Amino acid sequence: xxxxxxxxxxxxxxxxxxxxxxxxxxxxxxxxxxxxxxxxxxxxxxxxxxxxxxxxxxxxxxxxxxxxxxxxxxxxxxxxxxxxxxxxxxxxxxxxxxxxxxxxxxxxxxxxxxxxxxxxxxxxxxxxxxxxxxxxxxxxxxxxxxxxxxxxxxxxxxxxxxxxxxxxxxxxxxxxxxxxxxxxxxxxxxxxxxxxxxxxxxxxxxxxxxxxxxxxxxxxxxxxxxxxxxxxxxxxxxxxxxxxxxxxxxxxxxxxxxxxxxxxxxxxxxxxxxxxxxxxxxxxxxxxxxxxxxxxxxxxxxxxxxxxxxxxxxxxxxxxxxxxxxxxxxxxxxxxxxxxxxxxxxxxxxxxxxxxxxxxxxxxxxxxxxxxxxxxxxxxxxxxxxxxxxxxxxxxxxx
Length: 399
What we know:
The chain is an alpha/beta fold and about 400 residues long. It has 3 domains: about 10-170 and about 240-305, 3-Layer(aba) Sandwich (Rossmann fold); about 170-235; about 320-399. It is built from 15 helices and 11 strands. Strand 9 (about 340) and strand 10 form a beta hairpin. It starts with 7 loop residues before the first helix and ends with a strand.
């Protein structure tokens, strides 16, 4: 296998020792859902509208899972995108053994037209053609040259396609970085001794110590699995970003920012109210995000979408445009059809009886626009209910 990045052998060996993520294997589909790995849901979030499905059936996608690790993301990508084609690659043979076993036990391959799980670097995928959707979560920041990785992914993304990334953020990793450097000074290494010493360090520091308190309050549960602890504190190669460097990183590959995949984190309304919030909301989006970054030092990562080509999200502010639109039910809901659901972010969601009625009408007549549905409602009611469903992300508009 070509090692196009200087860090490849070291990182591969690390993940062979500690296959990541350390989620347990199970028989049957993965638990719940993650809407970021359902391409329909991600597409609607980024672009505000879905392309029309083909006459032959539901829309399908060509998907790349670049740096699939133990196959957690691959498993979801298969189960949430039935009929699609999925290529999952990673540089670690040890993690790929787990990924293959995970997808075998879950029946992932039966959900898609094609599933390939291969030992390859994302830097060495020439000849694979172009993908509609690329998922690369927690990968590029472990390359020696993340810019080369992003350029490689940009070259694999079709025009108008969508790339989902997850990269470390400086602010919320302050304590993690100091712990990493302390373990390096202690000569902990990146193997089993490092794991033992790392756990010992965080257990024996004074209980008033900031690093210990931060770990116990925020990360102890996430790092219960040894692989997860090692990935956080012992990794031999990582980079992190602030917002300014992140945007420069995106621009270096000629890609366009298509929005955060955790937009609620970047809303000033999460932190401010009253006159301060009014001032914040008067700022352009980039400055709003910069403000949130300064106000919330706990943000430990960036998760976001990129597009190959300018992003012009559909505008549904016009009643006429909304009434003319067709729509689908977001497949990332738990308990559908009901007025009591778990929404896309696995949080409780209550629909009105009118909302449930409108969505059932769309299911029964997917070829009709919202304004054409056989509902004995005045226009104002139809528009109000549709807007509420858009806000709740239950309704995905279709062009």
